[in-house]
Amino acid sequence: PFAALREATLAHRASHDCSAYPYDNGALLGALAASANARRVLELGTALGYTALWLAKGAPEAVVDTIEGDGEHARLAREHIEAHGLTGHIVVHEGEFAEVLRQLDPGYDVAFFDGSAPTRVLLKEMRRLLRARGLLISANLTHAGAEAYLAALQEKKSWLTAFIDEDHETALSIKL
Length: 176
Description:
single chain; alpha/beta; 7-stranded mixed β-sheet; 7 helices
């Protein structure tokens, strides 16, 4: 249902040479949010709103808090969210990830990281915000600088982690 937005995001990225990139499998995000019966969802890396819309579709009773550092992308995401009638259901927070995360209250059921290379500092904040047994979906794990984040996801006392692709680009992790 969001194919046009995915294509618009790719066109925007090409014309502006920016980092707006839609995650390849939006439907998977919707299915995971649905399977978690999510009421609160956190996303890092809004771009133009494609994945936030999928998360909201999968969890129609949830509030999706999504964070975007680029002001133009945040503005465009808000427009797309409004066009799909989901203003208030999806809240776009503009700012640096770590700064915005510190302002949020714990209790998220699902968190999705898709903003450049993940860092251990961001993982610590997402862990604080996720409820016990909450689901963390981490993308971009093969990007340079993601090594410490990836190692932390494999700490068996903190996370139960499985990779969903052969190249270990994306992981599903349950907070223990």
